[in-house]
Specification:
The protein is an alpha+beta fold. Helices cover 31% and strands 25% of the residues. It is built from 13 helices and 21 strands. It is elongated, with a radius of gyration of 25 Å.
């Protein structure tokens, strides 16, 4: 009996996983447009590969149909992922916030191990092969490469990834292929990336890192928040705190709303406690106000805080009124900043938007529009928070699609 012939388009996390599981029963050919597989895996977790998270749940994911995520993880969840990677020689180690990494803490070993495992299973990997067209025939699909090569397959798994981070292979080609097969595409936008803030005085803080409580506020309501480190840049903010809120900020701006970012530099203090601390700094009434704040703030921060509080930094502590003291405390607890237009996909770790999940069966990842087509990973209209959530979704959907062959 002839084995089923399966094509996988894309050699990222979901494509490699799909190839592994599909090869149990099928002849598998993987097409990757880059010169090597797993390039986005290599940059994950700052080169250490944040492979998953112990606290996987649907609340950490976004898209137009979040219930889809629950169905996916019922079939192949975080525990299944952990067992799978252990079975191919990659045990996990846990770090802060439940983040899981390969015990070696090297992302490079993940595609290397996949390459070994797929070779052992006789998977054909075609590098530098971009698929430009998929034509549905009576008994399968005809794939046409950019070089006009033609290949016939019984089924096709689209694991092309998103348009995020083109330097590691991100592109629009997967959306175009899915659309050509009849699928609805929600317009992608960048998620998990630094944030533009046009307020120029803020740019003077470039290079300063600060632990803080950061919120996104819109129409008087807190939409999302995070407690983590922020990095001030020459254009706005970056660092873990920025990455955690950027998706929400960008979505609100794209929806023509006007979000604000609130930064609390002293999240462990209330206003009265902070005022009491400030008053101890101002006991020397002859000190410049900006100089007096260096006991609790990094250099350059006092001048910004005072500018935002509308107080001359050259004044002496003894000249402060009670209202001015209160203004300084409130600014330290609630620096209000207006974000600018989203930064580009070239800086984004992930992209929101993609193929409508209402058109995909979460139990198999097969298209409800075109039978024999399966769609996985970041190509779908699901994106996760920073912290291993996107890779987990890729492993899960790839495994499900592979096992469904």
């Amino acid at each position: 009996m002839n084995k089923k012939k399966v094509a996988i388009i894309g050699g990222g996390a979901s494509g490699l996983t799909a190839a592994f599981f599909a090869s149990e029963k099928c002849h598998v050919t993987l097409f990757e447009k880059q010169k090597k597989t797993g390039r986005k895996i290599l940059i994950s977790g700052n080169g250490r590969c944040n492979i998953s998270n112990r606290f996987i749940n649907s609340n950490r994911y976004h898209g137009h149909k979040k219930s889809f995520v629950n169905e996916v993880f019922k079939s192949f969840g975080a525990d299944d992922t952990k067992k799978f990677f252990a079975s191919i020689g990659i045990p996990f180690v846990e770090e802060r916030d439940g983040r899981l990494f390969p015990t070696s803490l090297q992302s490079s070993i993940v595609p290397k191990v996949f390459t070994y495992e797929l070779a052992k299973r006789n998977v054909t990997i075609n590098l530098h092969r971009r698929i430009d067209k998929i034509i549905k025939g009576k008994n399968g699909f005809n794939l046409i490469t950019a070089g006009n090569e033609e290949h016939e397959f019984d089924s096709v798994i689209l694991a092309c990834g998103s348009c995020a981070h083109p330097a590691s292979g991100g592109a629009n080609s997967g959306y175009h292929l899915a659309e050509s097969l009849g699928h609805k595409i929600y317009e992608p936008f960048p998620a998990i990336l630094p944030i533009n803030i046009p307020y120029k005085p803020l740019h003077r803080l470039q290079g300063i890192k600060q632990d803080c409580h950061i919120k996104v506020i819109c129409e008087g309501k807190t939409i999302t928040e995070a407690v983590d480190e922020i990095l001030f840049t020459g254009y706005g903010i970056s660092g873990p705190a920025s990455l955690k809120i950027s998706r929400t900020v960008n979505e609100l701006i794209i929806d023509k709303k006007s979000p604000e970012i609130s930064i609390n530099l002293f999240p462990d203090m209330n206003r009265d406690t902070l005022l009491a601390l400030l008053n101890t700094l101002w006991l020397d009434k002859g000190k410049k106000i900006s100089f007096s704040l260096l006991g609790i703030l990094k250099e350059r921060l006092p001048e910004l805080i005072l500018e935002m509080a509308k107080i001359d930094s050259e004044r002496r502590a003894g000249t402060l009124t009670e209202n001015e003291k209160l203004a300084i405390a409130e600014t330290l607890l609630d620096m209000r900043l207006a974000p600018g237009e989203p930064r580009g996909f070239e800086e984004a770790v992930a992209a929101a938007g993609g193929v409508a999940t209402s058109e995909i069966n979460p139990l198999t990842m097969e298209s409800r529009i075109t039978k024999g087509i399966y769609i996985t990973g970041e190509l779908l209209d699901i994106d996760g928070d920073s912290g291993g959530y996107n890779l987990q979704f890729a492993w899960s959907t790839g495994a499900i699609a592979g096992m469904a062959q």
